[in-house]
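Protocol step 4 of 6: record predicted structures for both targets in the notebook before any analysis. Target 1:
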Amino acid sequence: MEKKSASLRPEFVDEWFSCVKPALFIHRDRLDLHYNKEEFNKLIAPFSDTENVAALLNKRLSVQANGIVYEPGRDGGIISMDGRPMVNVYRPSTIRPIKGDVAPFLQFTEHLIPDPEDRHYTLRWIATLSARPDIRMFYSLLLFSLAQGVGKTTLAMIVSRLVGLHNTSFPSSEQIIAKYKSWLVYKLVAVVAEIYEGDSRKTYNSLKSAITDSPIGVEEKYQRV
């Protein structure tokens, strides 16, 4: 009896992207979750009689992309970059604008940043992050105060939720000066609690390139370059 060749259901194929480099599988509805071949096959195993589903999916040109990009402001999924199909893993914030009174927020910023010019540029920075995430700004906010509890952390929490917590990282000083910079990958905002500790300026100096360089080179742990 002739053995029937394995095939994939069109509904299943439509759920996935197959990336060439890095060799990963990405679900269309969960662009933040990436699986290598072994992980993907194990994930799908309970729902398939075929051991190597990854090999079958790799044969489908419609789901294949050359690589992964993070392009805020563009739709997630396969997009064209320099004529090549790429998977854009950016996901926008879930917060949507509604009509309301902004006075409490403006009063808060007046308390936090008394200087009118500094406050003006801070509000512009926040507005650009939330409304135009596609614009790369080459400066960041440095908030400092002699007193504790004036609202710096509150502002950081507001900004992180405006852009989406999935687009925000909270690295420690040790992570910033480390060789591997995973805290920079697929993020719009990084909230750093302390950048100057004692007599060391390593954290401050390490942040310079992350703020001013474009594009940013990142080396991730356990990832092939």
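Target 2:
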Amino acid sequence: MVSKLTGLLGRISLSQHFALVSTLAITALAALLRFLNLSNPPVLVFDETYYVKDAYTLGLFGSERVWPENANPDFEAGDPSGYTTDPSYVVHPPLGKWIIWLGLNLFGVENSFGWRFSTALIGTLAVPLVILIARQLTRSPMFSAVAGLLLAIEGHSIVLSRTAILDGILTFFVLVSFLFLIKAIQAQRKRILAGVLSPRISAWMIGLGISLGMAGGVKWSAAYFLAVFGLITFLLDWQFRARSGNLRSGAVWQGLINALVLSISSIGTYLLNWTGWILNQDSWGRSSNENWLISLVDYHRQILDFHTGLSKDHPYQASALEWLINLRPTAFYFEEQAGGCLGGDECVVAITAMPNLVVWFGGLLAILWLVRNRLRTLEAQLVVAGFAGAWLPWLLIPERTTFQFYAVVISPFFVLALTLALQHYLRRGYLLKTFELRAKRITGLVLLALVVAIFYLPLWTGLPVPYPFWRLQLFLPLWI
């Protein structure tokens, strides 16, 4: 057995060794940051008050039930019996809550660790997924590891992984979709370069549709990615044909096939997420018509009215433009404690969805640089398309109440953009004979991101700190 293992390791190249070891180490770091102190605070944080309780009744009945307004204290104390038998009107699809329910089922509803287990696990798995995506884009084990490390220590990703709400789950399925998009585009280009111009149904495109359908089963904002990813497959197919000197008319037929495949696979997958609602006559709105499809369409019309009409003022609301400059990060939890905090008289336990400022602003600058200087490259086009799906559509609904933590789905694309920019910067060092200097600067940037992560770790994980330190972390007035 030992000799077989030794022989196997001997056949693995040094770069493969590095890729394997770095992926395992970075994933372990991501898990530590996402599971450390996960059960604290032992109360429902921010929108957990909706999703955790909805997940519990969803697991019991197949659809959500109404909870009275004062249900939280008993639920937090381990008594989840406060729900009523009335069906609940909810405005998000059920898949994200089913995933949260898995943690409740494994560890118990009375355990706050169980509330957040599933989101922490999915947030951890997003890190090796980004490493895999970065490997497809950079073909470099080193820069793939850099991408994974930057996401592992990114504040939005950490906080949303440690909170039982939907946006971290959405981000995971968007990343799965992005990986399928890359593979589908690569397969398209390979076929065209090989002279195969007839339209084909791609297995990668089917996978893209299924993963987007699952993303849509978490939050409707996945529809933005469906539109952007579908459009980019058409534009790139057209571009590949033009560069190879072939007729572009084939791109139209391929585009129609791709649109049909994406529509059927994504909508079909999305509908499967509603199986519990469809089979349960006691679900909210289910009995409005004998035909379940008509009832579901009517329900979706009401959900759409809710989302388009959501314009309530909130102290932590932030527009999509404000997301980019981190103007108003969302405070999820705050508690002052008297004494017992590093010898001080006043202690603060707080959780705020604050990004890692080095990764966030570095990623924003990298996106701008890709758009200005590298948009003719396939890698830049794909990353910019991902960013566009995560951000641009929100500009079209400025009146809607939105929050900074929605931008967690932008974080991986900032990470990927920054990784591409750093790789180009280092490669230029070869030509300018400044390789060592540039390598040191990149190392310094990564180390600075690590320092910022250590500084903000208490704010991301709910660790108690002295009040003056908390004020130092949130030094801008609008961050409080």
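Step 5 preliminary note on target 2. Residues 166-273 form one domain. The chain has 20 helices and three strands.
Proceed to step 6 after PI sign-off.
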